[in-house]
Amino acid sequence: MAEIIRPSTVLPALRTPFHVLTSDGVDLIGEVASPLGQSKGAILTLHPLPTAGGMMDSHVYKKASNRLPAMAGITVVRFNTRGTSSEAGTSSGAFDNGGAEGLDVQAMINYCFDVLGLENLWIVGWSFGTDLALRHAKDSRHQGLILLSPPLRTTTNEELLYWNSDPRPITALVPEHDDYLKPDAARERFAIVPKLRIIPVDDAKHLWLGEPSVHRVLSEINTIVTGDTSPLPLEY
Hints:
- The chain has 6 helices and 10 strands.
- The chain has helices spanning 59-72, 101-115, 128-136, 157-161, 183-189, 211-226; strands at 14-21, 27-34, 41-46, 74-79, 85-86, 89-90, 121-126, 145-148, 170-177, 197-205.
- Helix 1 crosses helix 6 (211-226) and helix 2 (101-115) crosses helix 3 (128-136).
């Protein structure tokens, strides 16, 4: 009998912890959640600001790893950037406000392709993670960017303009009640990258609290990665 998806729901997947070494010797810790069957695609998640509590277990990403492998056939790769802690452990190194974290992003992209052999990989950034994606996720092997609650805190206009020379798609999910960049402001700031698609999300906030917001985010990710335009089921 089908059960309603709840915040605590953990669906079947193959969950594997890992360590990845960056080019400057930082030890990153993380976990891969893979479908038990064939993978239709994958996401590499870049978490919110660690100095404000962001980590690989930030709730949207934890729920993505608990649901998307079984519900959508999507492999979910989560990790802690340098100096960040979660239940899985602490990555070595020190927080650098998005600078040296670029080495973390590249090391993880390399790991996804060179070790895990993932296909159809998308980069998903949330808050601080959106700045990491826009500034550092330029590796030609991934499929594009998915931005959740982008604050554009450290990304410069010059760094934004780079994406006009890159053909890959970028989609930004912007909460109606975001604390930093609401939909109208996001349209203005991102106007210099005309191809970037903004999806305003009614009643949502920066942290995507509540099951309706989580369901919307995970459904949009599934649509972008797999092409399935149906919302994710509410039961499993």
